[in-house]
Sequence to fold (446 residues):
Amino acid sequence: MTIAIVGGTGPQGSGIGLRLALAGETVILGSRDGERAASEAAKLTSEHAPLGVITGANNRDAVASADTVILAVPYKGHEELVGGLADVIGHKLVVSCVNPLSFDKQGPVGTQIPDLSAAEEAARLLPEANVTGAFHHLSAVNLHKVETDLSHEDVLVCGNDESGKAEVMRLASLVTGGRGIDVGALRLARHLEPFTAVLISVNKKYRTNSSVALTGVPETGEK
Amino acid sequence: MTIAIVGGTGPQGSGIGLRLALAGETVILGSRDGERAASEAAKLTSEHAPLGVITGANNRDAVASADTVILAVPYKGHEELVGGLADVIGHKLVVSCVNPLSFDKQGPVGTQIPDLSAAEEAARLLPEANVTGAFHHLSAVNLHKVETDLSHEDVLVCGNDESGKAEVMRLASLVTGGRGIDVGALRLARHLEPFTAVLISVNKKYRTNSSVALTGVPETGEK
Fold:
């Protein structure tokens, strides 16, 4: 199984890709600029010598070679970028970790968008794909600090297809060493995505890199 | 300091009131029906013999006697109910734990409302009051099981006034035995409130009563 990360040279995308490769997966970082993606992949490989393989390519080539596509792009330009990949994404499994956020003097806040969430927007743009949402709340800083244990952070996974979510929960366990939690329908992405604004605000106030854990859920995340 | 709970006979309101009274606070449960509130207060008192005092009254009388007002009402009817109390609420500290949620065959989801959150709606209806948001994510079931330790559950507090939030964080510590976390501006209530839909969905899938904890924040919640 090969995983393409669209926006894979950004801090969140490259951090998720690095963690997946460390766990043995085959990862292709995608970027608008394929050479930049290849360069980032080479840097991560030389620094971390992962068990798996990280390479880089332009977004279209990365997606074409992959089984699963992680969308880790800024929300700005999301519609054009994702819509333009619809033909190569086809029926693939898609994981959106896009957070539509705005910032002003009051701090961060979720952006009101027409589809209510970036994941629902992706589902509209990619009508054949199996779209899920996950990985919104992991700190890019901590993803790159590979010695940092993330196993106490929960990855909240939403989607409308059980088998797709099961695969995303497997990837979540590889990324954090902890668990994914199936929170329900894809539309709940509209509540997962902007919760990141709460975390960023907390990070500033408490000078930390916060994330989310749910209490009361069995340790293994088994249903 | 006396705390009025508007909607204090509902499961969430009475649970918060019970926990506050157990911690020694003076609580007045408010209800549209003052006799029903008095009856609920007498029942909680006889069952739990709290250190503090719980009484009941109609919402207006409860608010008039209180320093702090907790809004624990269903979103349906929120505007009329809260707007109708504006004169007795005046400049008081207000804590909204209202969750505007909808339910259909896909499960729970946040309701899109004109003010974007119930807390912001309350701030519009109560222009003189010091409005905060908190207590959205505590399970009413667990609040009433007084032997259940809630200290690992974080109470996320938002508001635009630091002294108001400090008092709400004090109340949060009394309710859970754990900590409140100042997440930032009042408008972040628009992300705290519908996150409850995620928790309710998880509760159904995993047959539990989930809540939220943030990782990475210093244990005491000190800034």
The CA atoms of residues 134 and 157 of chain A lie 5 Å apart. Chain A touches chain B through 46 residues (CB under 8 Å). Chain A has one domain: 2-206. Residues 2-206 of chain A form a domain with the Rossmann fold fold (CATH 3.40.50.720).
